[in-house]
Structure formats: structure tokens, C-alpha cells
Amino acid sequence: MSGRVAPALAVERLDVLFGTTPGVNSGLRNISVAVGGGERLAVLGPSGVGKTTLLRALAGLAPVAAGRIAVRGADVTALPPERRDMVYLHQTPVLFEHLSVAENVAFPLRVRRVSNDAVRERVTAALAAVRLAGLEHRAPHMLSGGQRHRVALARALVARPAVLLLDEPLSALDPTLRDEVREAIADVHDAADALDHAPAMVLVTHDVDDAGLLADRVAVLLAGRIAQLAAPATLFASPATLGVAHLLGTYQTLPALVRADGAVDCALGTIASHAVLEPGAAAVVAFRRDALTVRSVASEPCAVAARVVGIRHRAHGASVVLRLESAPGTPMLEAELRGAVAPGVGELCGVALERRAALVFPA
Predict the structure, then answer these.
(1) CATH number of 250-362
(2) Residues of the chain with CATH 2.40.50.140
(3) What are the tens digits of pLDDT across the range 283-304?
(4) Distance separating alpha carbons of residues 17 and 224, to the nearest angstrom
């Protein structure tokens, strides 16, 4: 008999159909992923790809066409939502306005007829874990938006579910509140340790930063399938497909042509490729802004002549928008300045690509 512990959540070859147009491939296909207790998985994808549909299927709120959902080794595919040992949190936390903070958090325990002593102990621990100690007697209308989210998280934790599902928890928030709630969700991991209970957490989002900051692993959902499943650092450094690179939004692309030796030629030079591509085939070179270096003159080795067409200022620094002089039909490029003196709009400069930071994909 194996001593292997079953994951908190296991999804195996799951198909979920949605949409009403006959013959259109609309739905989730062959979704397989396992999430351990205490692990945080972000499902990242564009709007309309089926992220919320997947979450609803896991919770038992949407029908499954094929496949299996297991919680702690038990098949729950055919079970109703209340028997799946999951808690589903919507975008906007729903609190009982006539109950205090402590009474809101205690609600699932009261439903289960947990003893008063145990309720007090677990509610106190949950509120302390999400940094709401001392607010037990406040009414919900006296709380900030971030505090309301923390109450909802405490209520979810006190129920001790195997799986915690979060549906776009930050999508409708202003930047300040977004940071506060992001911090609250990150606290769930520490809160679980304090409560001696670590649920698997699955959150869906279209925001790349949220996925990277909140998750241990990210599942990229494209065209109804998981295109890549990886830790955030791996995902951002090595997107598996051109579609994933485009979704991340941090990559720029140039058309390229495959050489006989397997490398590819693009407007910024020759790039080695690990992809197996046919000589003469079209390819795409992808790279981030920080892979480009702007130089004062175009005559330096490895630099390609470019014209500055704009300068963009961001909170974390400035970048220049460039048009390659030798390839006027290619897309505009953007390069970080990294402390260099910015050339003026209209000036000629040199731009060089760090070859090791470039990725090659089939066109």
C-alpha cells in the first residue's frame, strides 16, 4: 500500500462546454492539474476563455461534460456544491450587514452546530490571522473595502475547507484597495498555518501581476486548454508558446527566417534557436524591453540603427519607442533606458538585442 498523500484538489481530463453556437469549439478541453494543501494556483487567461466557468465547474455550479474532480482523493464530480468541501469567494465579498464581524466569521460554524467554546477559539484565531483582531464587534458598514475582504477570507478559513476558490478577487478594485486585498490574500497562507489548516487555493485572474504575486504556480488558459503550467519565475522567463508570450504582455516580437543551420535571422541580427524548425520557414523572435540596449551611436558593434519616435514615462522608469531604420516595415520597438540619458525624439541611435534573452517560436 502506497503512503503517497492525495493532493487537496485533483482535476483529471476535465471537459466543460459553454456557448450556444453549434459546431463551434467553445469550452474547456482536457484540463488536468493537481493542487496540494497550502498551495496557491492562479488560472490566468484573457476574458471569455472560460476561467470562471472552470471555477464554477470545480465548485459544482456548472456541468462537467467529461473528466474527474477529486478532493483529498475522493471523487466529487457528481456531488452537489455543499458536499465538495470547498468555499467559493466571489469578486465582491458578501457579508451579513446585520451581523458583527465576529458573527459573520462564525456563521459557517453555527450552521454546523460547533460548540460555543470552539467557535470563539476558531473565530479569534481566524481574525488574528487576517489582522482583524480588535474589530470583532464592528458592523460591516464600518469597515473599509480591504477589511471586508479580510472578513470574507477569515470566514472561509474558519470553515476549514479543503479547497478555497477565488473568482477574479481584484478585478474591480482601485489601485490602493487592490494592493490591500492582494496583501490580504497573500496572508491566507500564513493564516492557514496559524489555524493549523492549509487549504489549496485556486484563483482566476486576467491580470499577469496578480497571478505572479499571489500564486506558487500559474496555469495559463488559452483556447480552452492549459497552454503552460509553471512557477511564475519560469513562466515569465520562458513562455512555452507565442500565445503565452503575447498574453504576458511583456514581450515584443519581430518576424524572422530560419537559416540552414537552425538559427534565425531577424532585423536585430541572428538568434540561436532551440526550437526544431525547417530551414526557410517563417519564425518569430520574442524579447522583453529589458533585453534591448540603447546606444548613443549606431556605429557600435552589434547595434542596429534606429530612430526615436517617442519616449514613455512610467512609475518604474522611462523607455524609448524606436523605429528600425533598416526595416521600416517591422513593428515599433520599446527599450528601457536603465539610467542612460534619453535620446531626443527624432534622433538616430543604436539598439542591440541581448541574444540570450530572445526566444524563438514558429510563425
Answers:
(1) 2.40.50.140
(2) 250-362
(3) 999 999 999 988 876 556 668 9
(4) 10
